[in-house]
Amino acid sequence: MSKQVITAKDVEQAIASTGSVASLPGNVVWTPSALDMLREHGLSKPGSGGSAEASAKKFPQAATLPPGVPSVPPEPALIDEEYRWEPGHEPKTPEEFQRFYYSAPITKLRERMAQIGRKVWQRGYVDGNGGNLTVRVGDSIVLCTPTLKSKGELSADDMCIVDLDGNQKAGSLKRTSEVMTHLAIMKATPKAKACCHAHPPHATAWAVAGIRPPTCMIPEAEVFLGEIGMAEYQTPGTPANAKAVGEVAKDHMAILMINHGVITWGKDIEDAFWKMENTDAYCQTVWISTLLGEPKTITQPQARDLIELRAKLGMDDKRSSWKECELCDNSDFRPGAVCRIGGPADSAGDHSAPLNPEAEKLVQALTDQLMAGMK
Fold it and tell me: Which CATH number applies to 94-327?
């Protein structure tokens, strides 16, 4: 009498109905595919290891969970480093500011600012004592980095506390002179709870050239940066510079400051730093793409989708009310330079600049000398 044969289908049906293969007979022939399915599910043949529980796949378990760890996994959540305070409650006296400065949550923030400072320096976004960071920690008080210190060597105890008028309230080092620009952004845009100012080479090059980066090139930049703004040059650290940048910050989370650098803002200091990284990477990528050929853009309907995604992430965008035909208008973006020397007007009606007679004489003399030397 031949033995019963168990196939992969038999195993699949048994697992589907009971969660094990304990219901299958023991003294049978198992096909190779049936044995493969047993191994895939971490099971063994009935009769070879006892009950269904004994045949289940073993896995390591902690004897006890660490203190404070829940017995079941928690619901997944997004990382949230935004600092929240109770309105109307903040220090007033020097003694209260000192205790506030050394409180656990503010100490943690100061340590985080020092870490971000090192990241800014390691990425090559600042040199010397350039750049500065701020985090709003109350209705009218802000943590900021000190002046004349490299961002690569910051410690938590180097940080300062100032009010929204720039008056220093705590910290042993003098606050940065450029904090007024950060404060202007926070006053103009309540959502701006942290700012990062630096001089990343690629984005700063665009600022020095006075060229605003085009839009609709890279989806991630559209979502996390939006349109990059540009503020006219004013002397750094002056009220004029603070006013100019504060106005632009109302509609832009990343701002090129002409002949100066870049400033970004976000809900926390990590967010502001990420936007600095995004801005420099975007400027570098667009620049390289212009060297390879004519950069392509996404379509206007696709741009509309990205702006709606920004809204779902809680980021305002002035372009939300624009017509689709306006969303990817890069008509002002003219990559590269064209040199025209002499000759008639081109097809666009532009005329070359008049030649300098003295310069022409010098060029001719040098040319004659070179030709004589070659003979």
Answer: 3.40.225.10
